[in-house]
Amino acid sequence: FRLQVTSPRRTGPWLDSSSFPETETETETGFFSPSPAEFDDVTGVAASSETETEILKRASTFATDEKHNENVLETESSSSSSSSKMCLPRHVAVIMDGNARWARRRRVPTLEGHRRGRDALRRLVERCAEEREIHALTAFAFSDDNFRKRPVHEVDALFRLMEASLREERPRMLRNGVQIAFAGDIDALPASLAMLCREVEAEAEAHAAASSTPSRLLLTLAMNYGARQDIVDAARRLVDMAQRGELAADDVDESLFRSALGTSKATRHAGDPDLLVRTSGEQRMSNFLLFESAYTELFFSDVEWPAFDDVCFDKALHAFSTRTRRFGGRNDDKHETRE
Length: 339
Hints:
By secondary structure, the chain is of the alpha/beta class. The chain has helices spanning 52-65, 68-77, 99-106, 110-130, 144-149, 152-175, 191-210, 227-243, 254-259, 264-270, 310-322, and strands at residues 2-6, 25-29, 91-95, 136-143, 178-183, 217-225, 275-278, 297-300.
């Protein structure tokens, strides 16, 4: 049985811009890949006679035949160790890549991969909140390139999924002591989603201020975000301040510039990212945290994002703990420096 379909790989609520190529028409054998009009955008259930239960059952069946992630996980588990014995990062960043590839390997709708990617982010948030040394997690949720370059119906479907996910996770985050913040051009998002983001952020700030104990974790979701645009926007903010006479050119330094970036809440809370993790085998930054990651340790995992679990994260933490961070100096320097 051969079915010719147009199957754009879709980004999702926990996915960055590099996760899918340009839309193309391809002939696939036995591959159920409905177009955006053929499934419910929020639930991911196909509009055909195939039910969600049948889709998930088929995902489980194909998972037994598809050993890619399982083999990678087995390899990674051999070098992981308990985080309690390691030096941990204060600020972790993650580029969540591979939702669509995960779904394609299991021959299920791409949106199911995004839903599983959401679950993977929930696991990572819970894990980071448990680690006392980790104070901030910044996740690339949706890039400004996604917003500009993808089909309107596709992006709209993903915005609805984002909104549903935020409404679902909102009370859970508050209960678990996780404060949510956002980076990116939130005002350009659909009105209902933008309003929800502002409400969630304000609610989290108020809850943190009223609590007698500090938040366990600051989770920053980069939505409609691009690092280059964030740098441009920060420069414009400082220029506006200078034009109003609020600062002089000599006042501008790295610290002031960092405070003008959209990620300033996270960096003020826990400093620049110490560790950046990217999944699914890609090894590039994809316009994410370019200013903040000047001295960030990078870790690349072959595991696709939906399959990224504690074992994978332990390996990333172990790799971080074995690296020597010099920040331009040398550990054996005994002579006088200019700093």
